Amino acid sequence: MRLSPPKFATFLISAALFLLALFGHFGLSAAMANYAAWLFIAAWVLLALSVVLKDL
Predict the structure, then answer these.
(1) Digits of tens for pLDDT over the chain (56 positions)?
(2) Spatial separation of the C-alpha atoms in residues 42 and 54, rounded to whole Å
(3) Among 1, 39, 43, 51, which one is least packed by beta carbons within 10 Å?
(4) Considering only CA atoms, which of 51, 49, 39 is closest in space to residue 15?
C-alpha cells in the first residue's frame, strides 16, 4: 500500500476540526462541548483517509 501526503487544504480542514474539538473539550466554546469527541474523530478520519487515498 502506497501512502501519499495529504493536500494542504485537507490538512488545514483537519487541523481546524481538531482545534474546534480542543476548544470544546477544554470548555473554551460551550457550543462545541457536546461535539468535541465527534470532532476529534472526524479530524482523525479525514487525515487518515487523505493519507491513504491519493487525491483527497
Answers:
(1) 888 999 999 999 999 999 999 999 998 888 888 999 999 999 999 999 999 998 77
(2) 19
(3) 1
(4) 39
CB contact at 8 A, 56 and 10: yes
User: Does 1 map to a domain?
Assistant: no
pTM for the structure as a whole: 0.86
Q: Could you tell me the residue range of the domain that residue 15 belongs to? A: 8-52
For residues 36 and 21, the answer to whether their CB atoms sit within 8 Å is yes
Total Cβ atoms within 10 A of residue 29: 16
